[in-house]
Amino acid sequence: MADVAQHPDIDPSGLPPAGWSSWVSDWGSMVVDGVSTLGDITIFAWRMFSWMFTRLPPRGTTLINFYQVGVLSLPVVAITGTFIGMVLAVQSYRQFHMIGLENRLGVVINSSLVRELGPVLAATMLAGRVGSAMAAVLGTMRVTEQIDALTTMGADPIHYLVVPRFLACLLLIPALTIMADFMGIVGGYFYSVVVLGIDHGAYLQNSSEYVSGFDLFSGIFKSVFFGGIIAIVSCYRGFHCEPGAEGVGNAATAAFVMSFVLILAVDLVLNILLDAVYYQLWSPGELPL
Amino acid sequence: MNSEQPPVKSEQPLVDIRRLRVDFAGQTVLDEIDLEIPRGQTLAIIGESGCGKTVLMKSLVGLIRPTAGSVRFDGRDLITMNDLELTRTRRRLGFVFQNAALFDSMNVYENVAFPIRQHESATEDEIEPRVMQHLTEVGLPPEVAWKRPAELSGGMRKRVGLARAMILHPELLVYDEPTTGLDPIMSDVINELILATRRRYPVTSVVVTHDMRTARKVANRVVMFYPRSRLERGESQVLFDGSPSDLDHAEDRRVRQFVRGEAGERIDELMRRKEALNV
């Protein structure tokens, strides 16, 4: 029998093997980091909200951010919205055609767009185009001490830099969502009616019958949360950027990834809540939860 | 050159640091630091990288919250001030950053006008002559005002940074490595500007620098810090506190080595570390 003390995999002290303890330690530090980041973001958001209700941000910086978030994002949101509408038509047509329900294609395209794809698409585009840029700009300002310079000149960086960006994302994402919805509906209609030859009247009638005002409201309602998440996460990442070019790059990437994951998680929670509200208001007793 | 220093006007120091301690990630960078800066004095803080001079400088303007101790500005502790009080106090402070830290999104004029817009409700007619006057004082032509920071040379950026820091005529002006990265001529221009600023305005200055020419030329007092990790047990981090002319005759060998730019025993340490790695 081999000597236990000489066996490479058995620690004579009785402690777990080094690999095991390092695995536990890695997971432990990941959990601690995660909780700490969440706490930091909450404090960051709290400071941002307290500034928002204390003093309006400077008009100049606010208008520039509104222009960058709203006006410059419109084309990309419109283009991607159109393509998503057309892709939905392509993807759904064969199944609907097989059961002879191709005239109802508009229902699935439009309700998917208005309830889910429009807001999530607009938010994804905003996180990618604007959120990453916010993190990169603020990260560069952190690295080059511009944020410290603001502080030394008596300007609170959160009031000066974060509040305008938050307001721009919060107030303009509904407009971008409506644009994504609209262009997706146009794209879906174009592909279904013009390319696939579905009857124009039936397509429109079915679409309007099954897509309700509540669908439109729930999409826009969700988008406001998405806009808030993008601004807070991206600005937080920028403010806590590590030094150097790699730090700025990492901040931009982390801003997008974290925003996107949170958007989908919050989307799930809001969908459950909105469904519950819908069934309570319009179909009490049929609540599927 | 140090004979022209303005006299100390008030018995109460403008800055009074007591038993300051600053920790970062469980490591103590500064410990038990006591430092008084009388009004009108120009203090140069020197020391090798990692000795904590930048941390001290940032604690002076409230950019870093110390772990313990007090940093009093004109008798009031910055650490216990709320945000509003700190903002009001910062109006009386100016900070010249190492790389100027000019706002990329603004032109030079907007950068220099920023503190006025932040603290005063002045009209554009009132702001413009003040901005132009301060740009002239740091030797910049008026056309520079409409340029972006990216279009300026390192020396011009530093001068814009000085104009921005001086625009509200602060009582305390802190310079972070004012001559780092500049050629010898431009370094001397910056040194002269520091002296000219002090002659023109009754400002107390703290200059954090590695450049001994700057320390000797602009300061009437020099304080040298030493990294805690290299100190003997019970030793103070402040190795030298005196006039620039005393630097060369300092009793402490480490001060003389720093002033002369001699590596000394560091070379032996390096060699020992190299040998240890090879083993």
Please provide a written account of the structure.
The complex is a heterodimer of chains A (289) and B (279). Chain A is an all-alpha fold. Chain A has helices at residues 18-52, 59-71, 74-98, 105-143, 146-152, 157-195, 200-210, 213-239, 244-282. Chain A is globular and about 65 Å long. In chain B, the strands form 2 sheets. A 6-stranded mixed beta sheet of chain B has the order 6-7-8-3-9-10, sandwiched between helices. Chain B has a 4-stranded antiparallel beta sheet with strand order 2-1-4-5, covered by helices on one side. The model of chain B is unreliable at 1-9 (pLDDT under 50). Chain B is built from 9 helices and 10 strands. Chain B has helices spanning 53-60, 83-90, 108-119, 124-137, 154-166, 184-200, 212-218, 253-260, 265-278; strands at residues 15-24, 27-37, 42-46, 68-73, 76-77, 93-96, 172-176, 204-208, 221-225, 238-242. Chain B is α/β, with parallel strands linked by helices and 279 residues long.
Salient structural properties:
heterodimer, A: 289 residues, mainly alpha, 9 helices, globular, B: 279 residues, alpha/beta, 4-stranded antiparallel beta sheet, 36% helix
